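User: Second chain of the day. Same drill as before.
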Amino acid sequence: MSVLPTVAIAGATGNLGAKVTEGFLQQPFRDRFHDIIVLARSRSPKAENLVKHGASLRLYTEDNLQEALAGIDVLINTVGPSGHHFKETLLRAIPGSGVKLYFPSEFGVDHYVHDFSHEEWDAKKAHFQLASELIPNISICRVYAGLFLEDSIGPWFGFDTKGGKYEAVGDPEQKTSYTSMYDVGKALAILASHPVGTIPPEVHLSGDSKSMTEIAEIMEESGAGRIQVTSVPLETYKANVLAKPSPTPERYLRFLMGEGKIHHSTDGIDYSLKIDKAEENATSA
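Assistant: Same format as last time:
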């Protein structure tokens, strides 16, 4: 890898991708890279906004993806769940390019610890398996962020703040790891700026770990009013979800929270990278 690597971000105008790109464009991270390239099919206000803040825009078609990867050292795939076909097309363009480090589109929960099957997470497993076969000599780093802070404190996960009721699946004292999408970008910038040989194959992020009870207390202290915290039996809830599969992950994530399988710490899933510590190290380096 060159002294200052060039990074390309696929899906950079999406919900997560835009925030990840913004993380790379902020100091002290921006000066660690030669260029931050937004890979896009066409020009758009979101892409132009990233260019205005220091990114470069590189347009591609599915027929010229290998050409679009010319000069790229680090490729970050933030394409969302509706783009599995493109993810594979992008992956197949990596062999023969100069890419030395690939971050596949993970960035959620560590589904490798699950004891059940789900089409979305199965697609991610299949992508990693294909990557292992197609680019065995290129470093691959899977980054798991837990739950996104911006999208998680809502009724879909049992947090009805407006109604004053929180419902946990299992123990409401069980902690879950939440990470801001902006912090995912900063963590990726930290990792991408290190020598390829020093980057672990898997990283678990934890912006903060809080239980449902603790979140209720925080909301009450912030003026939300009284919040009643209740719970439903974990095993019964899980069995009902698995008996009626659905393509969206929210119901599955609720029982995973209860099982402690989204708790990225020494007490939960091993190998955590605390965002605040990593950012402190990057700033002082």
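The chain is about 35% helix and 20% strand.

User: Great, on to the next one.
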